[in-house]
Every structure is written in structure tokens, then in C-alpha cells.
Amino acid sequence: xxxLSQINRLSVLTNREFSTKIENSNLQISPDFVNRNPRxxxxxxxxxxxxxxxxxxxxxxxxxxxKLTQSGxxxxxxxxxxxxxxxxxxxxxxxxxxxQLYKCNDSVAFYNLGRVLADRCLKAGLIEMYSNIEPxxxxxxxxxxxxxxxxxxxxxxxxxxxxxxxxxxxxxxxxPWEITD
Length: 181
Fold this sequence. Notes:
- It contains 6 helices and 3 strands; from the N terminus they run αααβββααα.
- The chain has helices at about 5-10, 15-25, 40-45, 95-100, 105-125, 140-150; strands at about 65-70, 75-80, 85-90.
- It has a 3-stranded antiparallel β-sheet with strand order 1-2-3, covered by helices on one side.
- The longest helix has 18 residues, at about 105-125.
């Protein structure tokens, strides 16, 4: 239990005294590091990526998928994980975005929605995601949304899953976690 005199003495320490106390103590840093991020294997491209069945429609091979929906007044965009569902979302219904827009469903709103979602994706560490969204017009709302997302730094295709080479394979791909100079 701390006494008031101990607390006052601790708060009076200067940075120099504090740093010398740390240097004098023998702090051991463990050489082993365990990454407990559940998405770590996906980032290294060796995590499970669902295949689906051969009789189903294609497009089930993804870790994260981009979804865009539009109602009469608003637009909604989200990123979904194949196991855990919705990871991130943005909407023109949000007050912070809505108060900056003239209309919530025009091409400028879609472009800014893409920029906001790209910013949230980069902050969450999602750089690559699968997108099967095809814009009906090359200069329409959906195309503006995808352009805002790509300009924000998000890549709209995921890299393939790394499969280890078999002993009889002629081509042996470079491991994504190894860097060679």
C-alpha cells in the first residue's frame, strides 16, 4: 500500500533519475515473441482461405470482401470477413459525413464515402480486400466510390494464398514472409 510520502517522492523524480534507475536495473527482454493477432496468418498469406464448392458460383475465395449497398437516400459500404462478418463500415447516414455533403446519394457522396472507408481500412490495417463490384457506368457513382477507395490506398484484390511447394514441383514461389536482398 502506498503512503502519501511515497507518492510525493515518486512524483518528484526527474527524467534523468528515472532513466538511470531503468538503466541500472537488469531488464531482460525475451527473445521469443508470440503474435496473438488472429489475422496474422492472413497477412502472411498462409491462413485458410475458403474455396467453396465447385458447383457454387465463383467469388468465394476471399479473406475480406467489400460490400456496397444503396437505399433511396443513403449509401452504405462495409468490409466483411469470411468468418466473423462485418469488420468495418461507413455510411452517408453518419452525421460527421452527412453534414459535409449536399446530398447523401450523389456521386460526390459516393466518392467521399470511398475516401472515409479507405481511411478506416488503413487505420485498421486492411490494405487489400476482394471486390466483385462492377460499376455499371465508367463515370457513375459506383465508379467514383471505387476510385475514392483506391486513391485512399486500398488495393481491391487480395494476393493468392501461399501454398507450399511439393518436392516434385518445378516452380518454387518465394515465401511472402522472407525478404531477400
